[in-house]
């Protein structure tokens, strides 16, 4: 093997571990309340993508803390509030949602992230839909 090939391979492995495809991504959430007449479609950004992780073959030899996998999660976020149309006066018509400003690969924090993908849940409206324009 040529030295150039070996060097390229090593650099690829080093930078491949550091590189990830975790970034803010456009996403539409649908929000509705039982008391309100409409479902609101909100365009926001969430953290999504690929993070490099390593799965050890010696799982029984390592501490559980050493086995945690990195996920694409919020580095910086802010909250916005939308008004759900068609709500009666006795109902609070506001909904607050996160907006990803920047993302990072790290441990999943269940305080503000859903760390498990629930395949049974769908994101759709059962009522007439209104689009939230920001």
From TrEMBL:
One of its GO terms (molecular function) is hormone activity. InterPro entries: Cystine-knot_cytokine (IPR029034), Glyco_hormone_CN (IPR006208), Gonadotropin_bsu (IPR001545), Gonadotropin_bsu_CS (IPR018245). Its main location: secreted. It comes from the Eukaryota. One of its GO terms (biological process) is G protein-coupled receptor signaling pathway. Keywords: Disulfide bond, Glycoprotein, Hormone, Secreted, Signal. It is found in: Secreted. Residues 1-18 form the signal peptide. One of its GO terms (cellular component) is cytoplasm. Residues 21-125 form the Glycoprotein hormone subunit beta domain. PROSITE patterns: GLYCO_HORMONE_BETA_1 (PS00261), GLYCO_HORMONE_BETA_2 (PS00689). CDD domains: GHB_like. Belongs to the glycoprotein hormones subunit beta family. Heterodimer of a common alpha chain and a unique beta chain which confers biological specificity to thyrotropin, lutropin, follitropin and gonadotropin. This is Thyrotropin subunit beta. It comes from Aegithalos caudatus (Long-tailed tit).
């Amino acid at each position: 093997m040529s030295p150039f090939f070996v060097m390229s391979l090593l650099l690829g492995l080093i930078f491949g571990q550091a590189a990830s495809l975790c970034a803010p991504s456009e996403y539409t959430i649908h929000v509705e309340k039982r008391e309100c007449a409409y479902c609101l479609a909100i365009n926001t950004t969430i953290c999504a993508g690929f993070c490099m992780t390593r799965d050890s073959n010696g799982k029984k030899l390592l501490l559980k803390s050493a086995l945690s996998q990195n996920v694409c999660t919020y580095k910086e976020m802010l909250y916005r509030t939308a008004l759900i149309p068609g709500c009666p006066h006795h109902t609070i018509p506001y909904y607050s949602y996160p907006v990803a400003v920047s993302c990072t690969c790290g441990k999943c924090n269940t305080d503000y992230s859903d760390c498990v993908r629930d395949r049974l849940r769908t994101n759709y409206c059962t009522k007439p839909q209104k689009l939230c324009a920001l």
